Amino acid sequence: MSKQMTRRDFALTNEELRLQETLFHTANGYIGVRGNFEEGYPEDFVSSRGQYINGVFDIADMKQAEQLYGFPNKKEVILNVADTQTIRLYLDGEEVTAFGQGVRELNRVLDMEKGTALRSFIWKSQKGEEVTVSYRRMTSFTLLPLFTIEVTIISHDFEGSVSIVSEHHGSAQNFVNPNDPRMAAEAEDYLSVAETRYDEEQQLSKITAVTKTSELSVQTLVFHDVSSQLELGLVEEDESVSVVYDGQLTVGVTIDFVKYSLFLDSRRYDLEKDGGSFVETVRQKPLNQWYQEQEEYLDKFWRQAELSVVGDPLLNESLNYSLYSLIQSAGKDGISNIAAKGLSGEGYEGHYFWDTEIYMMPFFTLTYPEIAAKLIEFRYTILEKARENARILGHKQGALFPWRTISGAESSGYYPSGTAQYHINSDIAYSIIQYYQATGDLDCLLRFGGEIVVETSRLWLDAGHYEGKRFVLNCMTGPDEYTCVVNNNYYTNLSVQYQLNWLVKLYPLFKEQKADFLDKLQVTDQEISDYESAAAAMYLPYSEEKQIHAQDDSFLEKPVLPINELPKQDFPLLLHYHPLYLYRHQVCKQADIVLAYFLHDEAFDTEAIQRGYDYYEKLTTHDSSLSSCIFSIVANQIGDVEKAYRYFEESSKIDITNSHHNTQDGIHAANMGGTYLGLVFGFAGLRIREDSLVLTPRLPQKWTGCHFSVNYQGSQLHIVINKEEIHVSMETGAPVNLTVYDERRILSQENDWKIPYRKER
Length: 761
What we know:
nine-stranded antiparallel beta sheet; globular; five-stranded antiparallel beta sheet; Beta-galactosidase, Chain A, domain 5; Glycosyltransferase; 32 strands
């Protein structure tokens, strides 16, 4: 089945085009380019015209109404670094745009196997003559700084002059929306052009821009490869460079025009040396060879990340788009991470959250573990800043990772639903532990993960205290951002208990391997014993009256907010109700305890999960895109497969249907990871245990089956589930332990395993 997303003869409205700018973005984890029209839009349209480099940022003022101690007054902001997209086409002096009279067959295709995005249309001149124009884009997975646009012009019956104007702007403004707290509210010029050069001999433009505060430099280089019918004409050079190619177009003739752009930043490259080297590398191969390498990269990716269902074509399109967006979004160098909107837009100002570790990293852990290892490495690179953050918040030891960041500084301005979410520490630790269980990668654990787990554990002993025999954690916020700064958030306390128990379990391994960080941090046996004691004494609030786990000490004492009686236009509530109003009620923005039921399912029996699920489901608005996928997974755990499917269908298609009405600001990257979780951890019932990979499948009525591939302990497994049997085979690797339902075997390349599907459990 071809992995494509297509839009045909779509409406040329501002709303639709901004949505498509996101959906048809091209990215590779280092650079991201929104799917803007090369020729631009009419003047009355609003466009988020953007090109981004992952991890490149400037620092903006973040005004606090009352500047109390420790409140950040600066924030890191991802930059719209340049505009190399602009290409204007003129035929006999008429500008060719998709908005012209008589334009037809306007199509867009995102080819997720070839790694290209195509836009094409038939344009009619004032004389009635027609040409087909297409623009094919690629951000290279094999040479990360490279972005290409191939323009193809085919004459049906047009004869006349052709002029192509290629523009290169070295700085651009960020998009702002002061009415949405998820977007930047102020317009600033973060970049200033330091140097503009056009090399006539190489026909190459180079612009270097410098950030105002963070002292980073961005260099963009642009050059072209054109058909023989075109000749270089006018070159205009100021702070931007505009290059014109002129020629003649005749009937039946095709003109090709290729624009190559290279993006380099001073965090990763020596701009004086590396730019020229990259230009030479690109020019050594024709564009078709770069296309071939792109296709080969994605062929490997799709073999490792294969995932599909039988019986729902739209879902498969969404699944493909979700996984493709994740590989486009993930930083692959240890310097960058995964922003909440990937590299598709400026929502949340390019910040990295806990979304990476809980929602997106499991996908990479099980399909592309080398990328997961780089995401752990990134957290290690900002560990020192996490230590500094802990001191700012009054902790004498340990590290506290910032809630929102790019390079390690806290960029959350509203601490109750930001900095107070200390659970980010245990989320990062959880992902490291899961990664180690799934891969056995001891090197990553010893070099990066172990030190993170120790330092974040030290924070818990400093932040918590004993209340009698109970260890408690006060004044923190859990995942539910409609309930802030509470005592003993259940999710947080349970996650911390899990982390501390695992550190105790890993400590003998660290000693055996003589891990460098043990001496560096002066870890003692007594310290490990203290972690064990705190974990054993951890307080987990429970209501005997209601027979459910309490979200925190005070949650069940509040009045219930009747969310079913609120007007539909009042959602999401965060845009229409004061935070204090929400905090005073039993209402949840997203899964909190229900998330704990998923991540720590071994800590609960099914009946307890059922009671808690039923209670908290009625209180949850799902205003966060992180919520529905978790409710789907846990519905599967308790055996309500059809409810699980309803939640899954809602969450899996958020972006391709724009159901949250804000995809125009960027993809919901975490929800895309949640879509993977919903199928693999939900309907397939996969769990990564300490000594085995576990499957407990439950399929909805609409599907006849599903299949996917995972990498476990270095072995590539292929799993096919239908309503007759489960078939697991090993494609590469050494034997591994596998448990299906309650039966355990050692799976090897020589021995497939087929087991009957259990319809009733």
